[in-house]
Backbone:
């Protein structure tokens, strides 16, 4: 009896969008983790006012860039939130 083989159906029309979706999902996950770390450090009082300002501007620009990239590839924030089955979704609901 022959074992079934897994096949990848790489549609040339959607491969760029699918790869972009994967990369943007990883970038969004890292962005959210960095944002949470910044908030934690701010609440602990371990950042100066100047550092808080720089981080705030940087995070806003990164969020804008993510919005622009999602629009370019016709993706929504929900498209980036992968369903991990019984574990739930990759990104927390905002």
Residues:
């Amino acid at each position: 009896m022959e074992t079934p083989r897994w096949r990848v159906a790489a549609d040339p029309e959607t491969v760029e969008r699918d790869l972009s979706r994967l990369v943007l999902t990883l970038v969004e996950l890292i962005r959210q983790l960095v944002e949470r770390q910044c908030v934690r450090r701010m609440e602990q009082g371990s950042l100066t006012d100047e550092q808080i300002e720089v981080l705030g501007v940087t995070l806003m620009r990164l969020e804008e860039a993510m919005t622009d990239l999602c629009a370019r590839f016709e993706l929504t924030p929900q498209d980036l939130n992968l369903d991990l089955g019984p574990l739930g979704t990759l990104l927390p609901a905002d």
